[in-house]
Amino acid sequence: MDTKKLATFYNLAQTKNYSKTAEEIFLTQATVSKHIMALEKEWGIKLFSRKHRKVTLTQEALNVLPDVREILDKEQQLKQKIDALKNNPKGTLVVKGIPSISQYSAFDTITQFTKQYPEINLKFSEAGTDSLLNELNHDGTDIVFTRIFSPVSEKYDVIVNESDYFVALVPKNNPLSRFEKIQVQDLRNESFLVLEGTISGTNPIIPILKKPNVQPRIMYEGQRIDLILEMLNEGMGVSVVMDKSFDLTNYPNIAVIPIIPKKSSQLAFIKRKGDMVPVVNLFWEFARNRT
After folding, report:
1. Helix (H) or strand (E) holding 162
2. DSSP 3-61
3. What is the pLDDT at residue 202?
4. Are the CB atoms for 164 and 274 separated by under 8 Å?
5. Burial 205-237 (b: 16+ CB within 10 A, else e)
6. Beta strand 91-97 with 143-148: parallel, antiparallel or unpaired?
7. Which CATH number is 163-264 given?
8. C-alpha separations of 29 from 32, 51, 61 in Å
9. Where is 164: in which H helix or E strand?
C-alpha cells in the first residue's frame, strides 16, 4: 500500500481543501486528486463528496481514517527506529523539567522515548521555572521542559507542547470559593501556598502581587503539589497554580476559580540551537513528531 497516497488522504481529511493540502504536502492539486481517485479505485469506496465547492468526508472515509492514521504513525516509528539503528545512538540524555511535568503530555513523551530506546541512559531531574533555561548554559543539561511566558532567545530551539493558564485554588469553606472568577488582588489578605517556580520572576502575576496594596504572605513554598492540595483540603491558605498542574480526585474540599484577566503560559521542550549530539537529536525528532 502506497503510504504517500495515505498521507494525502489523511491531510485532505483535515483540511477539506484540495489546494491547501497540495500546498502543505508539496504536491500539485492534480496529483492530490490522482492519489484520492487511486485509493477510491483500489478500495472500491467513495472517500470525499464535493458539492457547491465544499469537500466533505463520506461515512466510509470516517470509518477508515483512524486506521490510516495508525499506519502513518507506524511508518514514522519505523523510520525513527531505522535511523536509530543507522546512527546507533547511545550514551546519556540529561533532561530537566518543572515539578508538575507529570500532568503534561511531555511526561508521556519522555516515558515513551525511554521505552522505545532502552539503550539510552535517561537522567531526569526537577528544577524551578526560573532556573531551567539557565541550565542549558551548562554542558551537563541537554534538554529542559519548562513553561514560558514570552519568546525565548533565538539561540535555543523550542517545541511547544501545549498551553496552560493560572487559576486560584481555594478551600470551599473560604468565602472566596463562591466567586465564579477572581482577580489576584482579591487574594491580598490570604496566606499563599506556593508551588516552587509558580510565583517567580518570569511569572506575569508578580507585578500584580508587588503592588503597594498587595502584600502576600507565603505560608508554604516547595515542590510538593500533593502537600499544597492536602493543606487546601484542610482549609488552609490559597494557591495560584496552572490549571493542568494538579489533580483534585482525592481533594473534594477545594474550589478552582479562573483568574482574570487570564494569564497563560506555554509548555515547551527547549535545547541549544545547533546541538549535534545524536542522542539529543533523536529525542528532539521523537518529541517533534508527537506534538
Report:
1. strand 156-171
2. HHHHHHHHHHHHH--HHHHHHHTT--HHHHHHHHHHHHHHHTS--EEEETTEEEE-HHH
3. 55
4. no
5. beebbeeeeeebeebbeeeebeebbebbbeebb
6. parallel
7. 3.40.190.10
8. 5, 17, 20
9. strand 156-171
Quick one: pLDDT at residue 132?
86
The C-alpha cell at 55 is 469537500
Let me know how long the chain is. 291
How far apart are the C-alpha atoms of 160 and 158, rounded to whole Å?
A: 6
Tell me whether domains 3-68 and 91-162+266-289 share a fold. no
* Helix 3-15 and helix 29-43, axial crossing angle in degrees, nearest 10: 110
> What's the grid cell of residue 235?
482549609
**Residue 137 Cα distances to 40, 156, 161, 180, 270, angstroms:** 53, 10, 22, 43, 12
DSSP secondary structure letters along 194-242: EETTTSSTT-TTHHHHTSTT---EEEEEES-HHHHHHHHHTT--BEEEE
pLDDT value at position 34? 95
Residue type, 283: F
| CATH code reported for the domain at 91-162+266-289 | 3.40.190.10
Q: Domain extents for the chain?
A: 3-68, 91-162+266-289, 163-264
Question: Which segments of 88-186 does DSSP mark as H helices, in order?
Answer: 105-116, 129-135
Alpha-carbon dihedral sign for residues 239, 258, 230, 109: negative
Q: Give the residues of the chain that fall short of pLDDT 50.
A: none
- At the topology level, CATH places domain 3-68 in Arc Repressor Mutant, subunit A (1.10.10)
